[in-house]
Structures are given as C-alpha cells and as structure tokens.
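anyone else get weird line breaks when pasting these?? whatever heres mine. first is seq + tokens for prot A
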Amino acid sequence: MPDIRPSADLRNNYPEISKLCKESGRPVYITVNGKGDTALIDIAVLDELYARIDLYEKLAVGLRDAEEGRVKSHDEIFTKFKR
C-alpha cells in the first residue's frame, strides 16, 4: 500500500516522511487538495532507478544491434585490442 500524505504533512512532518522514504525504499505520494501532486523518494533509490534505466537503454541498443546483424566475433574484437 503506498504512503499518501497531504502537502501540509510534508511541511509539518518532513523529518518523519524523509525517514519513511529512507527506511521503506518506497516513495511517499504528496497530495494537494486531495489530488496526487508529487512524490518524495530517497535519493539513493532515485540514483538506483536512474542506473537501471541507463542499463536497460544500453541493453536495448545491444539487442537491436544483434537483431540487425551488427555484431563481431570474439576473434575480431580481441585482434583489434592486440594491435
């Protein structure tokens, strides 16, 4: 179950909400007038998410290259590095 808090809680109870983000590893959703507005997330979790996205993007490029035949054998690669 997601943690949902009104914006007033963010202003009045920031240390508690920050601790909750760090301990749970999940975002806390902030509402304004009862509607979703923003999400607060621990910076370490955010950094991990960005790293995953970067890895997935690189894997997608590699898979596209393989599907389109843009590949080289081990011998070709190692020969290039031995020069």
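and prot B, same format (seq, then tokens)
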Amino acid sequence: MKHPHQRDDLVTLWGRFVSSHDEEAREQLILNYSPLVKFVAGRVAAKLPNSVENSDLISYGIFGLIDAIEKYEPERGFKFETYAISRIRGAIIDELRALDWVPRSVRARARDIENAIASLENRLNRTPDDSEVAAEMGISLKELQDAYTKLSYTSIVSFDEIWAPNADRDEQSTLASIIKDESAPDPVAAFESEEIKEILADAIEKLSERERTVVALYYYEGLQLKEIGQVLGVTESRASQLHTKAVLRLRARLHAAHGFVA
C-alpha cells in the first residue's frame, strides 16, 4: 500500500473517504497520521509511572486517531493534526481512567486543593498564594508543595480536562481554543461554546505570569517540561510544579464559576 506523502494525495484520500467511506482510503489516512499517536503517547508517558507501557498508550491512541478521522470535516478548512491530537490524547486518558491507575488518595488531594483555592478566591477576590492555600487546608506549606510534586508525577493533570473531565471530548474546551494562532484557523474552536471560552480565557489571564508562560509553552508551543524549565531558568521538577499549580487553579476557578466546588 502506497504511503501518502504528498499533500495532493491527502486531499484525494480525504475526498474518497468523506464521499464514500472508502475502506482503503481510511486505512491510508490512518497510516499517514499514525506518527501523531506516537507523539501524543510519548507526551503522556512522560507524566506516568514507568509501569505504564508506552506500547499500551499507543494502542489506546490509535482508537482516538480513528475517531478523529471518522468525525473530521475537511470542508471546514481546519487543520486535521490539531484536531486529531486532542482526540488521541482524550482516548488515551479515557482508557487510563477506566483502568483507574491513579490512587484515589491522589485524586482526593487534587480536589481538596481546588476547593481551597476556589474558597479563598471567593473570599479574597484575588489569587491566593501557596501559604494561604496551605492554611486553608490545615497543612504546612511543605506538605502542599509535596502534594504539587506528587500530583505532577502521578496524575494526568491536563488543561484539556479542566472544564468537563467526565464529558465527551466534543464538549471539552482546550487551550487551542483560547490562545489565538494568527497564522491558521483553529479546528477545535468550532466545537466549543463562547461562554466556556470566555471563562477559560479570563481564568488564564488571572494566572501568574510564570504559570501563564508554562501553560502556553506546554499546550500551545508543544514544549516538554524540561525545555520549559530551560526557558524559565528553573529545574524540570519546578516547571512541572508550576504546570500542576496552574491547572489546579484553572479548574478551581471554572468549577467555582459554575457551582461545582464542594
């Protein structure tokens, strides 16, 4: 089977598949875009324990790629790769959730931090610092920092899950729909409501400068945490902590805005 390298070949394949769901065209599209699965699986694997096999993540991601191909609408003029990456990541995370590999105690600690941040922001009308969050939770600052570290290495703390972690991926908001790319249209934005986008944009704006930088570099520019650490002049561990804190703060704000905080 010929691998479709040329853009003209891809346009032809999409045309065949969309018009008649041609099985051979579908297989060639999967083959052409399969490197995306390896890329996303590698990104996810970097945040998981060594016990999770990368080959398993790739197999989960293939289902996301197939789902993306089935639901993509070329006539919209959006870039398939960006749309597919969101679907692939979602499929991997869905499967990991089903396996319930993250300890319940870790999930509970993340919820406690989110709730503390949301409660403080409602009372103070500003972003609380770590010492205030620790006091609200009744723990020491070191315990809170240890929790950030544990969360960054044992759980998938993803911006793409902030709004509706249990919703279908069509209903989730992603960073790509918030940070504007002047050079190309955003394929994910077409699937998001204006209300959610406005809430997310406002929440991002209220992050600290470093947290906004980490979020932008990680999700929009596609940098690894090690590379982000080099940009900021901090260790990879510190960059990971900043990423975790940013996502927890965003989830707290969004959940509080819609009355979801316990």
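btw re prot B: Residues 54 and 61 are 10 Å apart (CA to CA). Confidence is low (pLDDT under 50) at residues 1-6, 159-193.
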